[in-house]
Amino acid sequence: MNRIDRLNAIVVHLQSKPKVTLDELEERFELSRRTLFRDVRSLIEAGIPIGGDAGEGYFIVDGYHLPPVVFNKEEAAAILMAGKFIEQNADQSTADVFNEALIKVKAVLRYADKDFLEQLDQKVIVRSSPSIAKEGFPDSNLNTVQTALATQRVLKIAYHSNYKDEATRREVLPLGLVYYSSRWHLIGHCRLRNDMRDFRTDRITQVEIVNETFDPSGYPDYADFASGMLDGSDAKEATVHFLKGVARFVGDQKYLHGYIEERKLGDIVEMKFATPSYEFLARWLMSYGDFVTVESPSELQGMVATFSKELFEHHRQYFE
């Protein structure tokens, strides 16, 4: 990147946030603090109203705006690719807003780049999980949740727990959004349980932003909380053997049950799991019948055997 392009990029970066530190600029542009300090001084001398200092960070004085930003075709292509994912992995309101933004991006492209983007648009497809492809992405109230997160305001929600098959009303202090297992999850402090909780947004049936703010710094980091769940810090390990012919049909389901890794052993595929519930894992494994064998632990082996016996007893009338 030449210096003129870098100076323009610095101004755009400064406009993107209330305040930007030199550390952040160093990380993005991979230049020394001395060089970046000179760049900022050059921009100030050129008449760009930049406030702040090297210690606390810099900002663009409120009211100043660059002329309309022009995207190159690589930047527009990246935005297009992001849009393909959003179409399949966000609720309709979010997808609609992004499509409006994409139209504005296309509007400022050169004609040659518009044709480039149109050709790319026709040749890129993102397939969602089978359930989403069949039913469409659920209304997840994502716009409302995002607003509450950005403004640090309390949410009142009606939430349906699939595990207990019950509906509850709660006040939640929203701390973060995490996407995993083909769903968006709201991580927040639940006043009903007085603890951190993970709420699947598609199970939030009603949501309302309360006119009450809170300080997120007084609560655990949502990213650490989510990582603890996904890493299975309280999970129990299991080793399972699938026949090679059926292992390929396991697909994304394995990630819902704490899949860690696998290795091929001839006609067998050995998979390791870290699951918070042996019962949940056992009932899923039973759907693969005699194509799967639990290697360890003995607790899970016994559970599968017990469930198999119960299933046989339930259906034994058909064998007599």
Features:
320 residues, Arc Repressor Mutant, subunit A, 5-stranded antiparallel beta sheet, elongated, 12 helices, 4 domains, SH3 type barrels, alpha+beta, 42% helix
Give an overview in words.
With 320 residues, the protein is α+β, with helices and mostly antiparallel strands. The protein folds into four domains: 3-60, Winged helix-like DNA-binding domain superfamily/Winged helix DNA-binding domain (Arc Repressor Mutant, subunit A); 73-132; 142-221, SH3 type barrels; 236-316, Alpha-Beta Plaits (2-Layer Sandwich), CATH 3.30.70. Helix content is 42%, strand content 26%. It has helices at residues 3-15, 22-29, 33-45, 73-89, 92-107, 111-122, 130-135, 142-151, 222-230, 244-247, 278-285, 298-315, and strands spanning 50-53, 57-60, 153-161, 166-180, 183-190, 195-200, 204-213, 236-243, 259-265, 268-275, 292-296. Strands 6-5-4-3-7 form a five-stranded antiparallel beta sheet. Helix 4 (73-89) runs antiparallel to helix 5 and helix 4 packs parallel to helix 6. The chain is elongated, with a radius of gyration of 26 Å. The N and C termini lie far apart (79 Å).
